[in-house]
Amino acid sequence: MTEALASKQPAWFGFRIWRKVDLDPVKQEQIVIVRGKIQTKASVEPGANDNQDQEAIMPLQSDSKAVYLERIQTYVHFEMNCMFGWIKQRDMVKFTQKMVAFVLAGNDGECSSTEPIAYVHVNIDNLTHPIPLLTVYHQFHPVPSSSYTLLQAMFGRRYPVGLLDEERILPVGQEITAVGILDTMPDGKPVIKPCSRLPIFLTERTREQLVIELASGTKLLFWLGIIATSISAGVLGYAVVKNYVRWKQRREQEQQRQIDEINRQNRLMEEEAENLADIPEGELCVVCLLRRRRSAFIHCGHRVCCVGCAQRVERGADSRCPVCRQIVTGTMRVFDS
């Protein structure tokens, strides 16, 4: 947004204003940056007959004139926390604010002697953005301690400390910058309103400082994005490599397990290998006709195969008993007494 801001000097503005036109076909809002000195509306429009156009506010504890006054009275007390011990708590007791209509006026040196001082109205109704207030009064009134306070502290109950009284103002004559939407009042006078899409409305920083701050924030976000992307890529790469190594280890272990199983079966077959002449005709495996029948099928119970052939029948595509053709769910090795 800052790159699109162009410096313009309209004829009816006697102070610095930078404008960015929002090309919204519905609203046609203009987001501008205006810098000027704070003045009351009554001081720049003395002929306006409006009951709301009052003079500047005078704080109770200061001689400075203001257009906005905020007074906060805070009750301070200590409260016992199980984790952090005694902690200080603050409860707002009273909050009052006063304000008068004010404008941002141009400097006298920027206007010719024949032209009136240019100004733009500032609308802070329903404002949610922070305001650069000046603290003119900050006084802490302690509460005298008593024996009851000591008992409260001994039993872990909260006890009062004092009352904090503060006054903060927006003084007249202070030069500030307003960033918001440029609009017109019913009488055609310009007014600037806060924009909910922007993080600030009134600030003491200049346009150049805002641009530098925005550029620094953009650069910081850029490098943070690069760092986060690098960390994410590193974590993802580490996860991929780790999963590949695990998969490779499981595959090697599975292959080694299969090789060990085949070797074990071969050893069993070699141990059970006997001379065909010593095996009775009814004891030969019905599949290979080379080894003695040593395995029984589950659930039919037929003992018609050797150990190796019985396992091959069980693991085959059609695991059925060669005799009764029932489905084989397992094998059991049988030893002769």
UniProtKB/TrEMBL annotation:
The keyword Membrane applies. GO terms for biological process: protein ubiquitination. GO terms for cellular component: membrane. Residues 285-325 form the RING-type domain. The chain crosses the membrane at residues 220-241. The keyword Protease does not apply. Pfam families: GIDE (PF12483), zf-C3HC4_3 (PF13920). GO terms for molecular function: ubiquitin protein ligase activity; zinc ion binding. It is a multi-pass membrane protein. This is RING-type E3 ubiquitin transferase. The lineage of its organism: Eukaryota, Viridiplantae, Streptophyta, Embryophyta, Bryophyta.
